[in-house]
Amino acid sequence: MLIGINTWAWVAPLTDRALARLAPQVRAWGFDAIELTVQAPGDWDPASAADLLAGLELAPAVCAGLLPEHDLLADDEEVLRRTEGFVRHCVWVAGRVGAAVVAGPLYAPAGRRWLLDADARRAATARLVARLRPLADEAAGQGVTIALEPLNRFETSLLNTVEQALEVVDGVPGLGLALDTFHLNIEERDLPAAIRLAGGHLAHVQVCGNDRGVPGGDHLDWPGMFDALTGIGYSGQVNIESFTAEALAVPMSVWRPLAAGPDALAVEGLAFLRGLTGRNLR
Asked: I need a surface site. Which of 29, 65, 175, 237 has the fewest CB within 10 A?
């Protein structure tokens, strides 16, 4: 497993200048990977990022969420085309920067919630499967896996659990699953069991404390989760995702400091995760 961190710990949106400052420091601390966020096309240059990260031997991942004007379940053809275009852009960015994964809730914008009875859920799942198939196939052709992330009940009513997400992933060849401990903690009664259920579909992992702060020192079953990751043979990235960037305070409901600062979040989180994996800081 590679240990990484998401750039949302420091900045939103990511820029070339910010990445040039952050990436060498992230590598110097001993991280293996860095998770690059896509909020809007053109925020940062993937070609420059690829050269920078290659020189640092820092593995990239790409993460994104849909904007309010996006919705892969939409009836409106223009909204659907716009959403598909954004997902394709994220895949192109990943391929250009050398990332194997685009992770995120790439089905509906966070905050979209609506009541779903059993029939409505089956219909929505079938629609999502049909619309993700060509996107996942195109991504696979570029050496990229789209990793679908279930969110907690306060952010979506569609995919909250691993079991629900697998109803989509199982129907789309090449589609993967991204798990975030923050959402797992809310929706899953047994976090290691949820990871084991994800099994070989698991393509990406994001971690934070149960309060969305530094991993460790909280009530999550970290040894159990890492034993589960090892048990399923997971060898991808385990990336800290927290939101200390000021621009994310309101959209992510961060009303108090989650750490002494983003640098402390990174250093303390890395030390804790290295202890779990039994690897030494470089």
From this structure: 29
Q: Is 149 a catalytic residue?
A: yes
pLDDT digit string (tens) for 98-117?
999 999 999 998 888 888 99
Distance CA 87, CA 97 (A): 15
Percentage of the chain modeled with pLDDT above 70: 96
In this structure, what token pair is assigned to residue 158? 């569609």
What 3-state DSSP class applies to 32? coil
Active site residue 84: no
Token pair, residue 20, equals 């040039």
Candidates 187, 188, 241, 268; catalytic one: 241
Instruction: Please provide residue 236's backbone torsions phi and psi, each rounded to the nearest 5 degrees.
Output: -90, -155
Residue 161's nearest CA partner among 176, 183, 182 is 183
Tens-place pLDDT, residues 141-183: 999 999 999 999 999 999 999 999 999 999 999 999 999 999 9
pLDDT score at 165 = 98
Sign of CA dihedral 242, 247, 252, 258: positive
Q: Which of 149, 155, 187, 268 is catalytic?
A: 149
CA distance to 95, 156, 159, 176, 201, per residue, from 116 (Å):
35, 11, 11, 24, 25
- Alpha-carbon distance of 253 to 169, in angstroms, equals 29
Of 262, 260, 254, the residue nearest 9 (C-alpha): 262
Burial of 221 (0-12, 13-18, 19+ CB in 10 A): middle
**Given pLDDT bands bounded at 50, 70 and 90, which one contains residue 3?**
very high
Show Cβ contacts of residue 50 under 8 Å, excluding neighbours closer than 6 positions.
Answer: 60, 96, 97, 98
Helix or strand (DSSP H, E) at 205:
strand 202-207
